[in-house]
Design goal:
This protein has one domain. A 4-stranded mixed beta sheet has the order 1-4-3-2, with no helix packed on it. The relative contact order is 0.35. By secondary structure, the protein is of the alpha+beta class. It binds zinc ion (ZN). The site of zinc ion has 8 residues, from loops.
């Protein structure tokens, strides 16, 4: 599965802004994401999972 780290709030595949927080996959992801201040997001349109350095949900 491809991983993306974006600086935008839209999906890299379809540019949708219909996103939701993706579930963290484990302690390592929680640790890394907290360090990097990025969030795992999932596009509700095409189901692409990616990371964003923005915090659109906060
Ligand atoms: Zn999408």
């Amino acid at each position: 599965m491809a991983a993306y780290i974006l600086h935008t709030d839209s999906c890299p595949q379809c540019q949708s802004m219909n996103l939701s927080l993706s579930r963290l996959r484990g302690w390592w992801e929680r640790w890394v994401l907290a360090r990097l201040k990025i969030l795992p997001l999932r596009c509700m349109e095409c189901k692409t999972r990616f990371y964003s350095s923005r915090r659109p949900l906060y």
